[in-house]
Backbone:
């Protein structure tokens, strides 16, 4: 019976309600679209994507649907522009994968199409992969504690992941949650303060330059973390 268990809530982009849902007339397309966003919300990798196999093996999706209906619904969602579809070579096998149609994912898709990036380079490798994993961690923390990522926030989080230690970021999110201040602006100010004044022992992290912090605070996305 629905309502007996504690429920988690997920956030969806505004455009899903304002632009997509009023246009959808096929119930299968609506069902598949909503479930893709549900799965993406719970992903812990960057970029987040859903494979065709995940959808086809889900009873939540396939109940009352056949594989032909699933393929048709995916085609409608991709043609509408809600979802980005791409065939990727993952572990030596070609797989159809689906991304949310946001700017950061469009950039990833276009780089893959131009041969400038492979999905393996995003999730595995040397320094680029380390940065991707650091970004994935901060993206996951944001989604778990604040809400759905937006293209502007993605860029802001990527800059923070490069600048601050992963442990600091994790602890800053925990402090914000403890203080019931669930906003990136608040978390960014915690990190900037630790970099300026020191954390714990009172010492600064030596490899964070004051100029780099100022660039982060005063740069393109600085309005998000104004004092």
Residues:
């Amino acid at each position: 019976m629905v309502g007996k268990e504690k429920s988690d809530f997920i956030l969806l982009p505004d455009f899903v309600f304002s632009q997509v849902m009023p246009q959808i007339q096929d119930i299968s397309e609506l069902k598949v679209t909503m479930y893709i966003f549900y799965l993406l919300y719970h992903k812990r990798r960057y970029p987040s994507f859903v494979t065709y196999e995940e959808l086809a093996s889900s009873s939540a999706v396939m109940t009352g649907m056949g594989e032909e209906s699933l393929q048709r619904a995916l085609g409608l969602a991709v043609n509408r522009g809600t979802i980005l579809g791409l065939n990727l070579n993952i572990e030596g096998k070609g797989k159809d994968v689906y991304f949310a149609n946001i700017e950061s994912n469009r950039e990833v898709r276009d780089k893959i199409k131009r041969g400038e990036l492979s999905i393996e380079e995003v999730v595995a490798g040397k320094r680029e992969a380390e940065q991707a994993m650091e970004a994935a961690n901060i993206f996951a923390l944001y989604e778990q504690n604040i809400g759905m990522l937006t293209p502007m926030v993605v860029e802001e989080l990527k800059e923070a992941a490069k600048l601050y230690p992963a442990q600091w970021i994790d602890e800053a999110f925990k402090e914000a949650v403890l203080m019931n201040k669930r906003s990136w602006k608040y978390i960014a100010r915690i990190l900037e303060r630790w970099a300026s004044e020191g954390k714990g022992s009172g010492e600064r992290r030596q490899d964070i330059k004051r100029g780099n912090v100022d660039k982060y605070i005063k740069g393109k996305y600085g309005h998000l973390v104004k004092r």
User: Anything to note?
Assistant: The radius of gyration is 20 Å.
